[in-house]
Amino acid sequence: MVENKTNGHRTFSNFNEGLGKVLRFGANNDEVLNRLAWMRDELTPAMKAAIAQHGELELKPLMAQALHMGDEVHNRNAAATGLLIKRLLPALLACSLPQEHIQRVVGCHLSPVTITSSSICRWPPVKQ
User: Fold this and answer.
1) What is the CATH number of domain 2-127?
2) Alpha-carbon gap, residue 62 to 43, rounded angstroms
3) Adjacent-strand bridge partners of 2
4) pLDDT digits (tens, 9 = 90+) for 79-108
5) Which bin fits 26, alpha (ψ -120 to 50), beta or left (φ > 0)?
């Protein structure tokens, strides 16, 4: 969930599934379903724990910095994804999660499109 504290608008988005065969493009084979189950069982609880440990994550300054690093925060997201990892990794490591879960979560976030859903989610409340 992304919340604009100024006007109270909230937007929601799922986690980005990455590249390749993904449900949002109509794929629904075992590979896709297994990834979605992993996202439900490991990724979501890990991110929830990391954000609870970290505290609120301010997306606007992260995206502003990413823009200065060459991202356009939609199709080119390598800097924004790296900044997200940099901010959340210490909190993720501080959570009492199995190390293999943390490794898979960090590996998932090495995809340059990780932050796409959150970045798109961020802008509608700003425009209204």
Assistant:
1) 3.90.1710.10
2) 21
3) 11
4) 888 888 889 899 999 998 999 988 888 887
5) left
Distance of CA 63 to the CA centre of its chain: 13
Neighbouring C-beta atoms of residue 57, cutoff 10 Å: 16
| SS3 at position 66 | helix
Cβ-contact 15, 47 below 8 angstroms:
yes
Single-letter amino acid code for the residue at 52? A
Q: By percentage, how much of the chain surpasses pLDDT 90?
A: 17
Closest CA to 89 of 58, 128, 50: 50
**101-105: long-range contacts at Cβ-Cβ below 8 A with a sequence spacing of 24 or more?**
101/42, 101/46, 102/46, 104/38, 104/42, 104/43, 105/42, 105/43, 105/46, 105/47
Confidence (pTM): 0.74
The candidate with the shortest Cα–Cα distance to 19, out of 2, 31, 3, 5, is: 31
User: What six digits make up the tokens of 27?
Assistant: 């794929």
**Phi, psi at residue 115, to the nearest 5°?**
-85, -5
